[in-house]
Amino acid sequence: QVQLVESGGGLVQAGDSLRLSCAASGRTFSTYTMAWFRQAPGKEREFVAAISWSGSMSKYADPVKGRFTISRVNAKNTMYLQMNSLRSEDTAVYSCAAGYGLGLGSPSNSYNYWGQGTQVTVSS
Fold first, then answer.
1. Are 22 and 6 in contact (CB under 8 A)?
2. Which terminal CB of the chain, N or C, has fewer other CB atoms within 10 Å?
């Protein structure tokens, strides 16, 4: 199994940037599709971004496209989400997820492994 630990969330002003990290347990990390999801208060969990096992392919939800960048460094067993030009509507708990052999458009319930979630709050 894969264990995921997130960090990097916080309280920021609109227009600021944050970089979230997701550290994985290791041995098979490089073979997993990974993704970020978020859940705002009173809302269902929604897809943010996903990245293929090699890092060569990525997918973004329309609200974050052009502002967020997903990346991974397999040698460090870590995935990142660089969030720029943050808006109040980006406020949510952000969770990283991993799953073997998943397409980049797979829904949240397709992912087997999840981090604990990290709170991102953007004030306007």
1. yes
2. N
